Amino acid sequence: MRIAHIFAGLAFLVLTACHGGRLATPSGFATLDSDDAYSYRATNAQGVVLGVRTEDNDVKANVNFWADALDLRLKNQGYAPLAQPSDARTRGGLRGRQMRYEVTREGRTEHYWLTIFATEKKVYVVEAAGDKEVFDSASPLVESAIESLKL
Amino acid sequence: MSPTAEAKVANEGAPAPAPPPPPPAAPGAPAKDEAPVATAPAGAPAKAKTPAKSQQIIFTGDMKMLADEEALTKTIDRIIDLADNVGGHVQSRKDNDVQIKVPSTSFRETMKAINDLGGVTSQSISAEDVSEEMHDLDVRLANLRATRTRLQELMNKAGAIPDVLTVEKELERVAQEIDKIEGRLAFLKTRTSESTIDVHLTAKPKQVQQVATGTPTPPKPRVLDLPVPWVGNVGIDPLLSLKK
User: Does the interface ipTM go beyond 0.85?
Assistant: First the structure.
């Protein structure tokens, strides 16, 4: 009995350590193993990739701070905004900010969406990207997947 | 060689100065066979009457220009066109340097037109006054022609062969001297009637191009250097890189 409690405790610790934002994988997408950078990642066959970063909110900033900081950095790197940042919301009711960009490199035009959610302790960065044409056709699935974020 | 006066205006690294005042009209030196002492008695030194002195100046311009690298050839072509338009011509062209000759009466106008092309970083103008030398040559030429006339008269009167030979020898020497002076005068007349402009073009460095256009690119907004390393990793490349 005591050993069972110890195992249960260890299992809880492991689950807690792996905790991170995840999405409901859309149809036609394959889920990849999480790694140090992403708590969730999935891709479809055409190379549209979804990813979630789960980071500690060490500086205790709200979602607007993180959205502005990332937006500024990406624009400095040449990401062209496709629209003004807009509000986003998960099905669980968490509010966030979404930015959409276009990047052209070596003749390829890519679309990149960045949706930020923040709690007091964590920052969730939901990323989605792919070649413009295939991304646009997959965008309804991407939007739905973002709304499915589970913390 | 008579003394010459030389004026030089240089302006390095500053806005180009205004071109100089226009040079005087075409040389007023007498033509080859136009003796300025026509009234002098044959054989007499022709110092009594000298031609009216007018300024004979050789103008030379030197300009340094900056141009966009892709516009270097076009700028050189425009400079050559400017010379053609005033009756001048290209004298030489090598790499990004071009030398043009223009009528002296159009020297100032051409310098200004090149200035108006933009990108002139420095220019210098030298004006060599050869009036005195040309005047001296004119006087010497008139004297020699008078001497030649007198010698010809003497030869007509000479009876003995030794006398004829002596006069003939002297005539030959005078003729050579006349040719020499006429050649020098012709050279100076050409130099004073045509001005030389050397233009050296250099490709603009990129940062200078921004200054020259007058619309420098505003600096990018400052990006916070947050003590949060992951912020710097957000972007398409890490996301699309699926290999571990």
Answer: yes
Interface test with B, best of A125, A126, A134 (most B CBs within 10 A): A125
Of B221, B236, B238, the CB nearest to A76: B221
Q: Is A127 in Cβ contact with B239 (below 8 Å)? A: yes
Mind listing the pLDDT tens digit for each residue in B121-131?
Answer: 888 898 889 99
State whether residue B224 sits within 8 Å of chain A by CB.
yes
* Chain B residue with Cα closest to A37: B230
3-class DSSP state of A144: helix
Nearest-by-Cβ selection for B242 from A49, A55, A79: A49
pTM (predicted TM-score): 0.45
Query: From the CA of B239, how many Å to the nearest CA of chain A?
Result: 7
- Model confidence over A74-123: pLDDT tens digits? 998 889 999 999 999 999 999 999 999 999 888 889 999 999 999 999 99
Residue type, A104: T
Q: With CB atoms and an 8 Å threshold, state whether B234 touches A73.
A: yes
Alpha-carbon distance A75 to nearest alpha carbon in chain B (angstroms)? 9
